[in-house]
Specification:
- The complex is a heterodimer of chains A (about 450) and B (about 240).
- With about 450 residues, chain A is α+β, with helices and mostly antiparallel strands.
- Chain A is about 55% helix and about 15% strand.
- Chain A has twelve helices and eleven strands.
- A five-stranded mixed beta sheet of chain A has the order 6-8-9-11-10.
- In chain A, strand 2 and strand 3 form a beta hairpin.
- In chain A, about 25% of the residues are buried.
- By secondary structure, chain B is α/β, with parallel strands linked by helices.
- Chain B is about 35% helix and about 20% strand.
- Chain B has nine helices and 13 strands.
- Classes of the chains: A alpha+beta (about 450), B alpha/beta (about 240).
- Chains A and B meet through helix 7, helix 8, strand 5, helix 9 and helix 10 of A and helix 2, strand 9 and helix 9 of B.
Chain lengths: ~450, ~240
């Protein structure tokens, strides 16, 4: 819910809804009010007219005929009778409402004074249809008594008005949703492009189209991207060139070591060369990231891990492989070999030995590499996959390396659609768990 | 002793003076006759002067680079080629069909490993030397549905799944494939799999064979391929086809 509300579109729509709602209610209210006022004024005028007409007509005939004339002129909400005395008594609930009529009557018939008009409001319950009793004095001191019944229900304007204005508001909201969607599309494109840039795939140009502001932003983004790429490329090239060029003198040293008379010194030299070579390889591997140029193909993970475990054992390390006969994944062989090689080397260097377990399940193949070392302090777990991160314990200082092994392994495993996690084992030591997706389909 | 140790002549093409000299003297102490060339032009002169059994080409050369030279050599003769490279990412192409080098080592290489590769390549190319212009000599072995590609140094099982081999296991399997149905002594296998400078004892061969077995006979249902011949050595049983 909160997440949804955090989008620009949702916020704008909500804002639009509130705004439209307020305007909607306010205008409906004002409209209705004006309509009511207009209508009551019109009603009043008509009523006064009718009353005075009745009075004039009755006035003109002889007393004997007055009742019948009054009766004839009755109709609609009005029922008139002639009598010698006034029937109405002024006041009563809602009497205020009749002030307007009172005034209007006086206005239209100059001979009428205050006393000649008595308006008595409805004194009974609200259910009584008779609204008021109005008595008008005739010049001969007799009276016309007019009972006013509730007119027909008010015009049914309101219902239709609500529907039409609500529809209009809905239309406004719908259009605003579309417009917001259209306006935020470039933002989403920016976000996607920035993310792709981060993941180091090929150049992603943001289309330089749309409104001026968006176009400016797109141009700026593309320029920034080009600058970043240039910087990264220059750095990568420099490091790669240095690493690469160092291999020629290292080759000479390795050949010279072969003819040294002092074999003990020669072996020390060879070991140093091997370490430097390893560091160069790791640097180059790190710069290259996951080798996307290597072909992805089905490979037996168990055979690959067996090679690495045997190699480690041949170098005097302790590496135990517990695995089924085979476990096939789709992968880049050299990259995976490098990733697992780094992890096994780490386990042996920092943890005294590696126990490699392969457990295939339905969707993935889980490889865990456990060691018996000191593990990693919990608060530093997160940074371990960052390049050049090393735990400065007394152990690691003598073992060398750049702190690239885990970072390279991480890049490669993620590049294969897998995951890699670190955890300290309850019984001590570190466990690295790698999940690689199983082969999608088996070839026919 | 094997004949190639005394007479084989090797042509080294590398633009680094020291590497050329150091490598040449190392190989001379190992009993090879060595010719040195700085680049493609010098290489051409050397080839005109006399025949060589094998060329070691540096990948990065001034003028025409190692890949070009290797391609030229392939078109002209069946002379085996080993590439020296500092770029591991190039290796796929180097040994691929496109370039057709027989093998490669990455700088900085262990000279003894290079030596082992030279011997393996010489042994393999043996009689196939006279095939100028043709495709490189047989580079693929098949047995029981498995395929061993020498170009890619790769083993694939009958399901087309790549099965990783260590350098030692690869060379050992290759020795078996070159002589199927023959009892191979531990000495012979040791010589073939000499990439491991430390593997000097007979036991080491037994370890290598058992590792190789685990990979090519992974399950209980897998057909047995390598038979132990008591007191003699090992025998590779499947029929082998060379393509």
């Amino acid at each position: 819910m909160r997440r949804w509300f955090n989008t620009l579109a949702a916020r704008t729509v909500l804002l639009m809804l509130i705004g439209v709602g307020i305007v909607h209610v306010a205008s409906l209210y004002a409209y209705q009010h004006a309509l009511d006022r207009e209508m009551s004024l019109a009603n009043e005028a008509r009523l006064a007219d009718q009353l005075l007409t009745i009075r004039r007509s009755v006035m003109r005939v002889v007393p004997a005929e007055r009742e019948s004339v009054a009766h004839e002129l009755s109709g609609g909400p009005v029922e008139a009778h002639w009598s010698a005395t006034e029937r109405a008594r002024s006041g009563g609930p809602g009497a205020e409402a009749w002030k307007g009529l009172h005034g209007r009557l006086k206005e239209q018939a100059a001979d009428l004074v205050d006393d000649d008009i008595v308006i008595g409001a409805n004194r009974k319950t609200g259910a009584d249809p008779h609204l008021a009793l109005i008595s008008l004095r005739l010049p001969d001191e007799s009276w016309i008594n007019i009972t006013l019944f509730a007119p027909d229900a008010r015009p049914q304007s309101t219902h239709g008005t609500w529907v039409s204005t609500s529809l209009m508001a809905l239309g406004v909201v719908a259009i605003s949703v579309l417009v917001i969607g259209w306006m935020t599309t470039p933002l989403r494109r920016f976000a996607a492009a920035a993310r792709q840039l981060y993941h180091g795939t090929d150049r992603v140009e943001v289309a330089e189209t749309g409104p001026q502001e968006i176009r400016d932003a797109a141009v700026a983004f593309n320029e920034m991207q080009a600058r970043i790429r240039k910087l990264v490329a220059a750095r990568t090239q420099t490091l790669a060139a240095v690493s690469h060029d160092l291999k020629t003198p290292l080759t000479r040293m390795r050949l010279r070591a072969e003819v040294l008379a002092d074999r003990a010194q020669a072996e020390g030299l060879v070991a140093d060369i091997r370490e430097m070579e390893r560091m160069l390889d790791q640097t180059l591997a790190h710069l290259r990231g996951d080798r996307k140029d290597e072909e992805t193909r089905p490979l037996d993970l168990v055979a690959l891990l067996a090679t690495l475990a045997d190699q480690a054992a041949d170098r005097g390390g302790s590496a135990l492989l517990i695995a089924p006969d085979t476990a096939v994944v789709d992968g880049r062989p050299m990259a995976l070999k490098r990733a697992f090689g780094n992890l096994i080397d780490n386990a042996i260097k920092y943890g005294g030995g590696a126990e490699i377990k392969v457990e295939p399940n339905r969707e993935s193949i889980i490889v865990s590499i456990s060691d018996g070392g000191p593990g990693i302090p919990e608060d530093r777990m997160d940074e371990m996959f960052e390049p050049f991160t090393r735990l400065e314990t007394s152990r690691s200082r003598e073992t060398g390396g750049f702190g690239l092994g885990l970072s390279i392994a991480h890049d490669i495993v993620e590049g294969h659609g897998g995951t890699i996690t670190l955890a300290n084992r309850p019984e001590g030591g570190l466990r690295v768990t790698i999940r690689l997706p199983c082969r999608a389909t088996t070839p026919a | 002793m094997e004949q190639d140790r005394s007479v084989a002549s090797i042509l080294i093409v590398d633009d680094d003076n020291d590497i050329r000299t150091l490598l040449a003297s190392f190989l001379e102490t190992q009993g090879f006759s060595v010719t040195k060339a700085r680049d493609g032009i010098e290489m051409q002169h050397c080839l005109d002067e006399r025949a060589h059994d094998l060329a070691i080409l540096d990948l990065m050369l001034p003028g025409q680079d190692g890949l070009d030279l290797c391609r030229q050599l392939r078109q002209r003769s069946g002379m085996p080629v080993i590439m020296l490279t500092a770029r591991t990412e190039e290796t796929d192409r180097i040994v691929g069909l496109e370039i057709g080098a027989d093998d490669y080592v990455t700088k900085p290489f262990n000279p003894r490993e290079l030596l082992a590769r030279i011997r393996a390549v010489l042994r393999r190319s043996g009689g196939a030397m006279a095939a100028p212009g043709g495709s490189p000599p047989g580079h693929t072995y098949r047995f029981e549905g498995w395929t061993l590609s020498l170009e890619r140094r790769e083993l694939t099982n009958p399901a087309g799944v790549m099965v990783d081999l260590s350098t030692g296991e690869f060379d050992l399997l290759l020795a078996f494939l070159e002589a199927p149905n023959r009892v191979l002594t531990r000495e012979h296998l040791l010589d073939a799999a000499r990439n491991q400078p430390d593997a000097v004892f007979d036991r080491a061969i037994d370890v290598q064979v058992s590792r190789l077995r685990k990979k090519i006979e992974p399950g209980e249902l897998s057909p047995p391929m390598i038979r132990t011949v008591r007191g003699a050595g090992y025998l590779f049983m499947p029929r082998v086809a060379r393509a």
